Amino acid sequence: MRAQRNIVVLLALGLGLVLASFGIARAEDYPTRPIRIIVPYTAGGTVDILARTLSQKITDTLGWQFVIDNRPGAGGNIGTEVVARSAPDGYTLLFSTSTPLTTNLTLYKSIRYNTEKDLDSLVLLADSSVFVVATPSFPAKTVADVIRIAKEKPNTVSVGSSGFGTLGHFLATRLNKLADGNVAHVPYRGGVPAMTAAAAGDIPLAIVDSTAALPFVKAGTVRGIAVSGRKRMASAPDLPSMPESGFPDLTMEVWVASMAPKGTPPDVMKKLYNAMQDAMKTAPIREAMAKQGLDPIDDMGLEKFGEFISREIPRWRQIVQESGLQVE
């Protein structure tokens, strides 16, 4: 009996070593099958285009295969949850804006994932700001002008955004606070309708993403006042940032990142990280990002990106709580 037990133990140990060796080999050979990229938005949007462009560049360079899986809904929460619940083997990744990773954690009353507990930070790819623009007849040329006019002429200043719970909505809420409650928010079904209303003079101001705003600004049908980020945007170098405008507390940006399920092997994460960073440095990717109104972010590193998210979550918790907004 003792001999039989010893044989069983030896067989178990041997099998463990074989499986361990197999696991190491799989990590070294990764990937051996297509990698699924979950985009929690509809096809054809900014994040979707970036995911497809970046993955194609990696395919052309390294031969890796990718499958883009669009899972829109609930402000990005549905697709994000899919990744959070996926196996941490490197074959399911998330390409998303910062919204479901930071803002939605407080904005939505019911949410079934935790960014820091369920996801690993992979690559911070790019960021973008929203544009503050005015209809030509509105006299404000700076953010300070907007606040001053709203105070001097109560209940006459309204701001259009691309919808409830968007970056433009949160910025309008903070402008309203600075203007003693005299800035009204008008949600539209997207950035282009809001810009069309501003260009027609239906509303004095609009705060929307760069993709919707830039064509109107370049055509001169609206006047750019500022961008919401901490720095100027490459696509609109003449527009001052919020700190330059004298309002650093109004700084708001949306960023685009890739995440993986929590517990994805470090060596697999490193392979993915290096592949994405190398692709990000190429001219085709930079050009594609510029067309989408995105500014690339310099190589931050896996660890620093995780620290960055840990700072962003409480910052957005405060912004959302101050706004009083919440989705059931």
Briefly summarize what is shown.
This protein is of the alpha/beta class and 328 residues long.
Question: Which key terms come to mind for this protein?
Answer:
five-stranded mixed beta sheet, 11 strands, alpha/beta, 328 residues, D-Maltodextrin-Binding Protein, domain 2, 19% strand, six-stranded mixed beta sheet, 12 helices, 45% helix, 2 domains, single chain
End-to-end C-alpha gap:
63 Å
Poorly predicted parts: 5-25
Structural class: alpha/beta
* Strand numbers in spatial order across the main sheet: 2-1-3-10-4-11
Mind telling me the CATH superfamily name of the largest domain? Bordetella uptake gene, domain 1
The dominant shape is globular
Mean pLDDT: 91
User: How big is the Rg?
Assistant: 23 Å
Distinct helical segment count: 12
**CATH domain topology of the largest domain:** D-Maltodextrin-Binding Protein, domain 2
Instruction: Please indicate the count of domains.
Output: 2
Architecture per CATH nomenclature, i.e. the level-2 architecture of the largest domain:
3-Layer(aba) Sandwich
Order of helices and strands: HEHEHEHHEEHEHEHEHEEHHEH
Proportion of strand residues: 15-25%
Biggest sheet character = 6 strands, mixed
By CATH reckoning, the class of the largest domain would read Alpha Beta
**Share of helix among residues?**
40-55%
